[in-house]
Target: Protein BCP1
Amino acid sequence: MDEDSDSSDSDEDMDIINVDFELFNYDKDIDFHGVKTLLRQLFDADAQLFDLSGLSDMIIEQNTIGSTCKVDDKANDAYAFLTVLNAWEHREKKPVAQLIEYLSDKAVKASGDLAVLPELFTSGKAQVGIVLSERLINMPAEVIPPMWNMMIEEIADAVDDKEPYEFTHYLVVSRGYVEVESSLDQEEQKRKRQRDEKGLQFFHPEDEEMRKHAVGSGAYTFTKEGDSADSKRAFQELGVKSQGFMMLIEAGKFKTAVKAIADYIGAAAN
Model:
């Protein structure tokens, strides 16, 4: 039997599933659990430090800014979400107050360029938009630029209507990971050459492009992280250690940054 022919037949028999993703405004009757689940993923080990229920409610109530991405029907849980919260406007509300305190602490420790963040949060002269975005790991990156572009348009409309979205800065909260030696391999590694910890890599590939437009960016260790690398090895010889990551972008450069990630994702897909 011709092996090449078998291979060709196998390729022809392979089914291709086309999936249509749609963007929706937040719906208080549908989106609470989906948004809360994605927030828990975004904040990883530190999710327990936040009032995620209260934060989810705030995101959903602000239903004219940001969107969810779903498959098939609006009634389904979100596969991705994007929003921005005005830190100064909501500073006295518990979910945002927790975010401000947490991000201020991490910014000071993460990078010298981010050390200005606590002052931006508290001065009242700056208007910082805290951008929260997360998606399921297997989501294609191509769905992300339309979400960002739509949010930019929504912010512009809100500013025209005198709503509090005229930001001076955007703080994009994300996450990445580093590969580290797993404790399961310690005995084996004693017999091998010591490996250095690799640099930060991104769960969201567009972050690598967006950070180029930031006035400051940096990774930080989760406060509540345990020795969890072994459980995240995912068939790799090295363990995976998640880290938080944030980027501070001036408002005047935000549109350029969003266009850059759209171009970056488009080029990567070709």
